[in-house]
Amino acid sequence: MNWSPTILRIGDIAIKMHVSFLLLIGFEAWRWREQGVTGMLFGVGLILLLFVCVVLHELGHALAAKSVGIPVREILLLPIGGLAFLTRLPRKPLHELWIAVAGPLVNVVILIALLPFAIGESLTYVLPGPEVTPSVKATISALYTANVMLVLFNMLPAFPLDGGRILRALLALFAGERTATNIATLIGQAVAVIIGVLGVLGGNILMVLTAAFIFLSAGNEKAETRTRTMLETKLVGDAYNRHALTLTPADRTSRVVDLILTSYQPDFAVMQGSQLLGIVTREDVMNSLAQEPNDVYVASIMQRNVLRVPHSLTLDEVRNVITAHEGQVAAVFRDQEYLGLISLTDIDEALAVIDYVERQKQLTTAT
Ligand SMILES: [Zn+2]
Question: Which of 87, 121, 128, 338 could covalently link to 132 via disulfide, CB atoms 3.0 to 4.6 Å apart?
């Protein structure tokens, strides 16, 4: 079952809403039940309006990302807020800064647009509950408060909140990306601890959960940046398997089984001379054996549509390409010349080696 159906499409961006959102709408209707149908409609209407502001905030991120060449395919709405999924992370600090600022900026623009209606009114600055009589004033009050809260909360300097990204981008302008991420992570986790302690003291379970989420996300962000910066140091042309065993279309599955058992190589290129015809993975062989007891030619089970990557890409870029195609393996080419295969597992292994070498270097410089 699809838990987050698309409710709207804006350009190539799908706005998806998680089904748990319906619980929130139901809860709001129930909260306003004492004011009858009008009250319930008002309560539900308010929550929908607030989420329109959240969608606009995420669209701000999405448009900013698009303006620097990073498409956003979907925006996901959860009862706790929204998320814009960038197809890749921005590399330049100024791009990250612009994308992160664009979200809260939208809420600031909404606040400015609301100003003419808010001036002279004695707004309450609390999100209205069922004790409020439905009115235009209560609506503006709610919108105002929600947008102020959206700006303040998102500007907290903690990943994955916008403020954390802004902080990291600003630091990265002066220090390197790794140092910037390390400092931003430290500050983010400290903020998370403060929110968590305040939540525990105030008995606010939502704050405690938010704090835990921020704390873990900050750690993930740090690990991901470390991985990315390490993989950026190696080109795929220097890291593919040069000594891989290959197959010809006349080989049969029994030979592949032998090769897998004796070499532990999981993926094989099927070659006709120097031409790459396709690839056969361990899964292909297993699937074939499960369906077809006869010893068939590899040509009949190979994948012909092989993802090609140029040898000049970094391991990080190759990893992104493979993941974007929901694949496992890519064929490395120098112009038209086939060089070898590289899989996500190979990249993980390369990462472990780069990591090891780097730690050794740090040890030698530290002593
Ligand atoms: Zn945001």
Answer: 128
Long-range contacts, 261-270 (Cβ 8 Å, 24+): 265/241, 266/343, 266/345, 267/328, 267/329, 267/341, 267/343, 268/244, 268/298, 269/244, 269/331, 269/338, 269/340, 269/341, 270/246, 270/298, 270/299, 270/302
Q: What is the pLDDT of residues 172-228, one digit of tens each?
A: 998 888 889 889 999 999 999 999 999 999 988 888 988 898 888 888 888 888 888
Residue 100 CA to ligand 1 centre (angstroms): 6
Q: Where in the chain is the domain with CATH 3.10.580.10?
A: 236-354
The two tokens of residue 21 are 């959102």
CB 235, CB 314: distance < 8 Å: yes
Residue 321 Cα to ligand 1 midpoint, Å, equals 26
Distances (CA, A) of 260 to 30, 245, 249, 253, 340: 61, 10, 17, 10, 17
Question: Would you say 196 and 212 are in contact if contact means Cβ atoms under 8 Å apart?
Answer: yes
pTM of the predicted model as reported, rounded to 2 decimal places:
0.72
**What's the CA-to-centroid distance between 307 and ligand 1, angstroms?**
34
How far apart are the CA of 232 and the centre of ligand 1, in A? Answer: 27
Distance CA 81, CA 146 (A): 12
CATH fold group of domain 236-354? CBS-domain (3.10.580)
